[in-house]
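Exercise 7b. C-alpha cells:
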C-alpha cells in the first residue's frame, strides 16, 4: 500500500462507530466501494460479518477497527496512521460455508456463512437431527436444542460459547458442535476435513420444527440442510502485526 491508498468506510449504527467514520473520512477522504483499495470496518464482529457479505462480489481486503463490544476480528481503533497501519498489516484469507437448506414445502434456500451454519429447534420440543458426512450417516439421531458447523475463523464465536473446539486458521478443518445435546449426552461433536460435505436431516419436522441460520440469514421450517466450504470464494482480512488473528486464536486456547 502507498500514501495514495483509497478507503471505503463501513460503520455500524452506534454513535461511536459513526463518529469514528466521520473522523476518518475527514482525514483520509473516501472512495466508493468499487474504486477503493481497502474497506475499513468500524463496529464489532457483527458489522465485520455484514460488510463481508455486502461486499462479497468485490475482491478488496478488509481492515477492521473495533468500535463495538467483542471485536475479535478487528484491530484496535486509532484514527492516526491508518495508511501506515494498513501498509504494515498482515493478511489472512478465509472461506465461507455454503448452506443449502430445503424447507418443508420443498423450497430451496442458499446462503453463505463466514462464521457458522446453525440449526435450532423452533418449539418446546427438542430437535431430532441425523448427521451425514460425505454420504455416510455418522449419527442416526441427535436430540438437542440445535447443532452447528463452524469455520476456523468462526470457531471463537458461537461455536466456543457452545463448548466447541477452537480451530487454528491453517488447520483446514470444520467443527460440528451440538447445542445442549440431550442424547447422546456425552457426544461433544466432531472435527472434519475442510472439504467435507455435511448433511443434517430433521426428524418429524412438522412436530419438531427446526430453523437454519447462515451467520445472520435465517430460514425457518427446514427439512434438510447441506453444508460445505466454498473454496471458490475468499475474503482477505488485514491485521496489525501485534494483533495477528492466528496468534489471538492460539492464545484463546490457553485462557483459563
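Sequence design result:
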Amino acid at each position: 500500500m502507498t500514501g495514495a491508498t483509497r478507503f471505503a468506510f463501513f460503520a455500524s449504527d452506534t454513535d461511536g462507530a459513526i463518529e469514528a467514520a466521520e473522523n476518518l473520512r475527514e482525514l483520509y477522504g473516501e472512495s466508493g466501494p468499487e474504486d477503493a483499495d481497502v474497506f475499513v470496518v468500524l463496529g464489532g464482529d457483527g458489522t465485520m460479518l455484514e460488510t463481508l457479505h455486502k461486499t462479497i462480489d468485490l475482491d478488496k481486503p478488509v481492515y477492521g477497527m473495533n468500535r463495538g463490544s467483542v471485536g475479535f476480528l478487528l484491530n484496535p481503533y486509532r484514527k492516526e496512521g491508518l495508511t501506515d497501519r494498513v501498509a504494515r498489516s498482515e493478511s489472512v484469507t478465509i472461506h465461507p460455508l455454503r448452506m443449502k437448506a430445503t424447507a418443508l414445502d420443498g423450497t430451496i434456500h442458499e446462503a453463505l456463512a463466514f462464521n457458522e451454519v446453525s440449526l435450532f429447534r423452533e418449539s418446546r420440543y427438542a430437535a431430532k437431527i441425523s448427521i451425514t458426512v460425505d454420504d455416510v450417516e455418522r449419527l442416526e439421531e441427535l436430540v438437542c436444542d440445535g447443532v452447528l458447523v463452524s469455520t476456523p475463523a468462526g470457531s471463537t464465536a458461537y461455536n466456543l460459547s457452545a463448548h466447541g473446539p477452537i480451530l487454528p486458521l491453517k488447520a483446514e478443518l470444520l467443527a460440528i458442535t451440538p447445542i445442549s445435546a440431550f442424547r447422546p449426552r456425552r457426544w461433544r461433536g466432531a472435527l472434519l476435513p475442510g472439504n467435507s460435505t455435511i448433511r443434517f436431516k430433521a426428524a418429524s419436522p412438522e412436530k419438531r420444527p427446526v430453523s437454519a441460520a447462515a451467520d445472520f440469514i435465517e430460514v425457518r421450517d427446514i427439512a434438510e440442510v447441506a453444508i460445505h466450504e466454498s473454496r471458490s470464494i475468499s475474503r482477505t482480512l488485514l491485521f496489525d502485526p501485534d494483533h495477528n488473528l492466528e496468534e489471538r486464536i492460539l492464545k484463546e486456547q490457553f485462557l483459563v
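Instructor comment: The chain has two domains: 7-94+234-252, 97-229. The mean pLDDT is 94.
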